[in-house]
Hints:
Layout: H1 3-11, H2 15-37, H3 40-56, H4 67-96, H5 99-103, H6 112-129, H7 134-145, H8 150-157, H9 161-180
Helix pairs in contact: 1-2, 2-3, 2-4, 3-4, 7-9, 8-9
Domain RNA polymerase sigma factor 70 region 4 type: 126-175
Keywords: Sigma factor, Transcription, Transcription regulation
InterPro entries: RNA_pol_sigma-70-like, RNA_pol_sigma-70_dom, RNA_pol_sigma70_r2, RNA_pol_sigma70_r4_t2, RNA_pol_sigma_r2, RNA_pol_sigma_r3/r4-like, WH-like_DNA-bd_sf
Amino acid sequence: xxxxxxxxxxxxxxxxxxxxxxxxxxxxxxxxxxxxxxxxxxxxxxxxxxxxxxxxxxxxxxxxxxxxxxxxxxxxxxxxxxxxxxxxxxxxxxxxxxxxxxxxxxxxxxxxxxxxxxxxxxxxxxxxxxxxxxxxxxxxxxxxxxxxxxxxxxxxxxxxxxxxxxxxxxxxxxxxxxxxxx
Length: 182
C-alpha cells in the first residue's frame, strides 16, 4: 500500500490503513523518542500516544508535509508536554514544602531509649501471656512469635484449622482483658 493511499484510507477510518501506517512508521517514531529519552518503556509509551493522537487527528493532516515529519512533531510535542507536567509538579511539591523540612533527613533507626522501651513492653507482654492457660500461650506463640500460618498451627497442634482460629481469637480476647485490668 502506498503512503498517500494509506493516509486517504485512514481518513476514511480504514483499520488496515491505520495498521499499515503504524507498522511503517513505528521504528522511526520509537527510535526518535529512544534517542531523546534513553528509556525504552517511556519511549514506547510516548510512541503509542503519538500514534493514538495522530490517528485521532488524521483529518487535520496537511498532505503538503511529509507524514513522518508530522508524526515526529506530534511525538516531540507529547514529550515536551510530559516534561512540563513533571517540572510543574516537582516545583509545586518543593514550593509547598518548608525549606528546613527538605534539608532534614528522617532517621528511622530506633534510639537507645526506643530499644529499652520496646524491650520493656515485650517483657511485660510476655509476662501477661504467661498468665493465660498453657494451650492459649502455645497458640499465641506459634502464631505471633514463630509466625506460623493457621494451617501450619493446625498441623502442629493436630487440630482443625477452624479450632485453631477460635482458640487464637479466644486467647487474644483473654490477653486483652488481662492487659486492660492492669
